[in-house]
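Subject: sequence -> structure tokens, single chain

Hey, anyone have a minute? Need the predicted structure for the following. Not urgent.
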Amino acid sequence: MDLTFKKIPPDESPLYRSLRLESLKFNPEAFESGYEEALLNPLLHFEKIINKNEAYKFVIGAYFEGELIGMCAFVDYNNHGVMNTGTLIQMYITPEFRGNNISLHLIDAVTQVVLKMPHILNILLEVKETNYGAVNVYKRAGFEVIEINNNQKCMMLSIKAKIVPRY
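Reply:
Had a minute. Here:
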């Protein structure tokens, strides 16, 4: 399977929007945002980030034959007060492409960009414990379950250690 992975450029933000709406419509249990609210929003949060082409906030896309079939976003902050830690969010792969390690490739692509950010030492993410498939993928990628802020469970990956792809 010939896949490419890259930061989604501003001229492709409509592709992001379409895939994000698909993720919210068909897998609402995996996300905090809702489809109806997003549908009414003329410009989604990450559409703005993609259009600004920011260095420390971005979305990596997985492309098959020019079609955006997966995505993963990153921001260089977190809402938990964990220093030197950014957040991985909005992981989504279209159903027909699942089971091909695309999530692991997306995590690797994000990590390669983040490794160039001297102020980021870790990547944090939140995932529902009942989302077993996602939890297993993140564990395969090297994320470990940690407890922060009143025993809230998150997963964290230390990126300043040597990264070895796990697929």
